[in-house]
Design a protein that fits this description.
Elements (H helix, E strand, L loop, with lengths): L1 E12 L2 E8 L12 E8 L2 E8 L10 E7 L5 H6 L7 E8 L11 E7 L7 H12 L4 E8 L8 H10 L3 E7 L11 E3 L14 E7 L1 H13 L7 E5 L16 H15 L1
Parallel strand pairs: 7-8, 7-11, 8-9, 9-10, 11-12
Antiparallel strand pairs: 1-2, 1-6, 2-5, 3-4, 3-6
The structure holds flavin-adenine dinucleotide.
């Protein structure tokens, strides 16, 4: 566990912000591209925990945790973070998660996301640039958003596509297309753009909206993919809004206390 302070916030769109946190102890943030951290924030009602993927574009050496966060109506973290000022503190644990690149890369890698589900893929791009240059892999990034204002990190992604011909970007707009859509932009949902036939040389990562993850998974199974060729991370909503109080005791701790109480009583 370490503590962090907010050092910068940036509005990316009406519904998305980017927050830069800095470790208070100055240590680097050790994580594998794709992993997430758990943040405990404090608001007027006390402490509560939320998970966020790290979207640092480059490996961290300076203790920076970059988050991209989407607005949820009535959301507790949304209320705090969309109005946050520099200096906001959080306690952080992690890294967690298995949405990471395998040691042996597949021939074709599909990175599929909705909205801020793009976050874990951004740190992966650096790791993929070498294999892309050497023609060892073909990468397809499918991003689903509602309208053009939500196409975040557009400059970085389009630039990456220009630099690496084996990197294919596809942005799917579910509500409104740009006025002049580019060749990689289309209407519909990401699942509409998954290949109908997949091979055992493929790996698919799915991240973001749980409904999208399930819809894609069903389609991939129909296309012949086995479950171990799909890595899923659902941005499920927090069930528990408060952090367990430290008094939440394990069975063993309860047994020891009971033993001591017995001795005390006798
Ligand atoms: C592994 C993991 C990684 C995650 N990474 C990110 C990330 O990088 N960026 C990010 O923005 N979020 C991420 N999330 C989601 C994040 O943890 C919070 O759930 C999210 O920010 C909403 O929190 P909130 O407190 O604002 O809303 P809450 O107070 O938790 O929810 C308020 C209400 O809105 C509903 N709700 C919550 N979220 C949504 C939603 N997305 N769509 C529709 N209704 C919703 C809830 O059911 C509830 O009724 C991740 C979640 C997981 C599990």
């Amino acid at each position: 566990m370490f503590t962090v302070s907010l050092v910068q916030q940036k509005v990316l769109s009406d519904s998305t912000i980017e927050l830069k946190f800095q470790r208070d102890d100055g240590e680097p943030v050790v994580f594998v591209p794709g992993q997430f951290f758990r943040f405990v924030f404090t608001d007027v009602d006390g402490e509560f925990e939320r998970s966020y993927s790290l979207c640092n574009l480059t490996p961290d050496t300076t203790g920076i945790l970059l988050l991209v966060i989407s607005k949820v109506d009535g959301g507790r973290a949304t209320r705090l973070l969309f109005n946050a000022e520099c200096g906001l503190k959080a306690s952080v644990t992690g890294p967690f998660g298995r949405l990471v690149l395998p040691e042996k890369l597949p021939k074709r890698l599909f990175l599929v996301a909705t909205s801020v589900g793009i976050a874990p893929y951004l740190p992966m791009l650096g790791a993929l640039s070498g294999p892309l240059c050497r023609d060892e892999i073909e990468v397809f990034l499918l991003l689903g958003v509602r309208d053009p204002s939500e196409f975040i990190y557009a400059t970085e992604l389009v630039d990456f596509q220009h630099r690496y011909p084996r990197f294919h970007l596809r942005v799917c707009y579910s509500r409104r297309l740009p006025d002049s859509p580019r060749s990689f932009e289309g209407s519909g949902y990401v699942q509409d753009y998954l290949p109908a036939v997949m091979t055992n040389q493929d790996l698919v990562m799915l991240c973001g909206n749980p409904m999208m993850v399930d819809a894609c998974f069903d389609k991939l199974k129909q296309a012949g993919l086995s479950s171990r060729q799909v890595i899923r991370e659902k941005y499920v909503f927090a069930k528990q809004t408060t952090v367990k109080p430290p008094s939440a005791l394990s069975a063993e701790q309860k047994r020891l206390i009971e033993e001591k109480m017995q001795k005390y009583r006798s």
